[in-house]
Amino acid sequence: MRSVRDDDQVRPTVEDEVAAAGSELIGGPAGRRALTGLGWWTPVRVIALVALGMFALGMVQKLPCYNYGWFYGATTQYTHACYSDIPHLYSGRGFDLGLIPYFDKIPQTVSGGMDYLEYPVLTGLFMEIAARLTPGGGSIQHREQLYWLVNAGMLMACTAVIALCVTRTHRRRPWDALLVALAPAFALTATINWDLFAVALTAAAMLMWSRGRALGAGLLIGLAAAAKLYPALLLGPLFILCWRAGRHRAFLGAISGAVGAWLVVNLPVMLTHDASGFHIREGWAKFYTFSQERPVDFGSVWLFISQRTGNPLDDANTYATLLMIIGCLGLGALGLYAPRRPRFAQLVFLVVALFILTNKVYSPQYVLWLIPLAALARPKWRDFLIWQACEVLYFLGIWFYLAYTGSGDKHQGLPLEGYQLAIVLHLLGTLYLCAGVVRDILLPERDVVRRDGSDDPSGGVLDGAPDIFVLGSARRARHAETREGTRVQWGAESREP
Hints:
Elements: H1 4-8, H2 12-15, H3 17-22, H4 43-61, H5 63-69, H6 76-79, H7 85-92, H8 108-111, H9 121-133, H10 140-169, H11 178-181, H12 184-189, H13 195-210, H14 214-225, H15 235-245, H16 248-270, E1 271-274, E2 277-280, H17 282-293, H18 301-309, H19 316-337, H20 344-358, H21 367-377, H22 381-406, H23 416-442, H24 472-484
Antiparallel strand pairs: 1-2
Helix pairs in contact: 4-10, 7-10, 9-10, 10-13, 13-14, 13-21, 14-16, 15-16, 15-19, 15-20, 19-20, 20-21, 20-23, 22-23
């Protein structure tokens, strides 16, 4: 006998044409009387296994580099599109020498000009733990291979956490997490860098918020921001949505937890003391100074403009900051003017996408930041796959371009014009998905997540809450409801008691 929760699960093969067509590979769409969520094969386990399987395929894709590409021939790792920072930074940041990140200065003979580790504290801790777990002995190449394997194992655990959290965030839509599990860009970029650690903490924070645990969500946001900068952006949408719903206490709980967790992690590394008092540690500050001083780099709109105009864009920091501020103000206005309060995942996706689009650099693994958010914000297979196709083309474009520029007179790879086209495809693909999310906010009746009467499955205490502070069309809609004496609490009838 099925539970009510199993009966209420939304099946993508029923509501999504692309998912239904794709399901023909495994026997077709689920029928009305199909048993789901029974026995061992629950949605969480199925999706976690699929995600781990795709992660393993991504590791296999790196095999040419594991065997020889990282060590023999500068362009081999590019022509096989299997580059990873992980093995290179094992020796390039002194982990093979036993140096302590942020405390020990890296010898210039191995660092390529980087005197301290240029990653936030929790990512540095992740790297250090992996280095401690890497067996010693043998050649440096063998230890770099082992270091990549150890990190891949730890990042695989992060993948399982992401799959679990995304599956459980929307209680009635667990199968939307298959978008994450089957995302080709996820598999291709998972072991390029350490971003999955921050992505896992962010996914856990969104799960905690969806369960109404504001303080716990804030603590995880703070930890995620201590591993990568972008999770701090989640506090902006929380502020707008809590303001609109009048749930100020929930926001205060989240922000106090975030600030507290970030300080607990960073203060011991951040401050050093001598006879003259406390000072900011130079090694801790390296991530922030490097981010500020870094010139325009691969994948960004600024690099495209610079290459097309010949202008080095020395003021790109200023331009990017201004665009980010203007964009955030626009998203704030959207959150307050929308006819219905946007879902938390929608605003989070838009603000992180805005950060990516305006940033001075776009590394291929940054797509990992958006994949879980896209699955929660707009679970439409067609749009998701169009965006993923653009990201895969960019993934190939950057490596083939580096192969072209590094192959001397052979010109083996993608020329500049082809790489610029790859940048444009990445920008347009992200903007396309953003446009779909904005349309769902302005026309909430077209939002597939709300089609079953839900308000905001990832909204926690905001789910079904009435609006308190609204502007424009939202104000008019609320006044109309008040005149009719039918203050609507969206989705309240679909929530569990």
